[in-house]
Design a protein that fits this description.
By secondary structure, this protein is of the alpha+beta class. The protein has three helices and four strands. The protein has a single domain, classed as Alpha-Beta Plaits (2-Layer Sandwich), CATH 3.30.70. Helix 1 packs antiparallel against helix 3. The longest helix is centred in the last third of the chain and has 13 residues.
Amino acid sequence: MPAYIVFIKEREHDAEAMATYSAKAGPSLGGHAGKPLAFYGAIETLEGPDAKGSVIIEFPSVDEARAWYQSDAYQQARQHRFAGADYRVFITDGL
C-alpha cells in the first residue's frame, strides 16, 4: 500500500538554513523509492491557517517512507530545516 510523507511549512525564519536544507534533502532520496508529487506549488487554503509551502512524497509503503525519513542523509538535512523553519510533517497511508 502506498504511503505519503507530507510536509507543511508554517513559518520560515532563516532563508540560509532553508537553502542548505534544500540542497541536502533532495539528494537524500537517492537509493530510496520516494517520488515527489508536490513541491512548493501554489497553495489555496480552504480551511485552517495559511501554509507557507508544502511537499508531498509518495513511497511504496510506510516502512519505506520511514526508512528514508530516518536515514542518515535525511537526518543531516533535517537539522537545517529545524533551524530554518517550522513545519508539520506526517506519514499517511494511501489507498
